[in-house]
Amino acid sequence: xxxxxxxxxxxxxxxxxxxxxxxxxxxxxxxxxxxxxxxxxxxxxxxxxxxxxxxxxxxxxxxxxxxxxxxxxxxxxxxxxxxxxxxxxxxxxxxxxxxxxxxxxxxxxxxxxx
Length: 114
Known about the structure:
By secondary structure, the protein is mainly α.
């Protein structure tokens, strides 16, 4: 599984172990954080699949968890997951995804002078 940064989505090609002060070369975000760990799971207790892991409150900040293993953090980035899922579903059935309407354009059309 390729490792990627949770903060910016860049691919992480790091030499050696990931230390507590290791940062992403692209965005300078903390690499050793729960969101970049392969054990992170929103549905698990304390959001971690490791049963013996200590609870970490700040999931996006650097921590000293001994069970940390670098994973695909970019897959956890927040965004419009609904739109992404609808686009994937449309692609599955061969339909073109509908372009998202810009709210500014809709507002301009609503109040444009006649």
